[in-house]
Structures are given as structure tokens and as C-alpha cells.
Write a structure and sequence with these properties.
The protein is mainly α and 214 residues long. The chain contains nine helices and no strands. It is globular.
Amino acid sequence: MTFSEIVQLMGFLSPAVLLVGLCIGFYYFKSLNLIHKAITWYLLILLIVDITSRIFAYFGNNLFVLLVYSLIELVVFVYFYYKYIFKARHRLVLGLSIAGVLYIIWEILVFKIDVKQFQTYAKVVDDFIVITLVLSFFHEKINIFKESKWDNFRLNAVILFFFSVNLIFFLPYNFIINKSAGLQFYFWLGILIITVLFYLFLIYSIWKNGRILK
């Protein structure tokens, strides 16, 4: 097996992991709590976006999918945190989230297919606001110091780590995408590894919750 064939096979690792996660999620679905049911639906959205991105890439360019994905991901996480995680209103964070959504919509409306000029500001905004949501959760828990149990602490810590690393990866995107193929390979390999690890944690969290409540 050649190196290029190995790289191509690695590209299928992400949807394969998501598919396994969905099988586990829907198997335990009735036993899951609301948070882990929401995570299962999130995995389904990720799989749909992954497949759509591959279809667009096959016919030419999938950069537009990244913008749409950033919008969907941001809306999903804002809804998730305000529906299931936050106990306080966090109006400032909500205002920032709405501004982020509007900005990404504007990016989508003015999108032009130009790989060399393409910037991942939409994904950076998405990552930044998700990080803000997580930090707001930690701030909320610290303020409620009498609470003996910090629910969902591990989940939020992993989300914070994943989106922080994502932010670091996507900030120099335009610089990297116009450099050598070798640098691009390590860039996408790093994203693939951190993404798959994030998916595996979510799947483990679903499995553990389903086993406990079943």
C-alpha cells in the first residue's frame, strides 16, 4: 500500500467513527439523558456535513461547506448551552453569539470561489464563541461555589480543549493552504487526529451515559 493510499484511507476515519458513534447513540437513545441525546443528534449533523463536504470536493470545491458548517455548528452549540448547560442568562455572551451568527451569514452571502484568497474567519469566529460559551459555563460554576457537584465539567473541559486547538489551527489557514503540499498534509493530519479524538470522547460519553441509565 502506497503512502497516498494510506492518506486516502485516513480520510474515511472521521465518517467511520461518526457512524459507529451514531449506532451506539441510537442503540442507547431511550436511556440517554437530554444532554447526551443532543450530542447524538450533533454527531448526525457532523456526519451529514462530512458527506456533503466530500460531495462538493468531488465536483470541485468544498470551501463553501466550511462556511455553512461553521454557521450550523455555532447555532447548535449556542442552542445546546442555553437549553441544557447554562442556568444563568449570560446576555452578553448571547449578544456576542448573535453577532457571530450574523457575521457568518454575511460571509456566506459574499462568498467567492478563490482558494488563494479564502480566509477561515467564519470558523475562527465559530471556535471563539464556543470557547466563550465554555468559559462562561466555568465562570457560572465558580460563582455558584456552594454547589458540591460540577455537572458536565469533563465534557466542557474537552470541548474547550478541542475548540482552542481548532482555533490555533485555523488562524493561519490562508498562509498554510498556499504553501507546499507537505505542510498542508501535516495541517490536515493534525485536524483529523484532534477531530477524531474529540468524536471518540463524545461517543464514549454517550456509551457511558447509556450504560448507567439503561
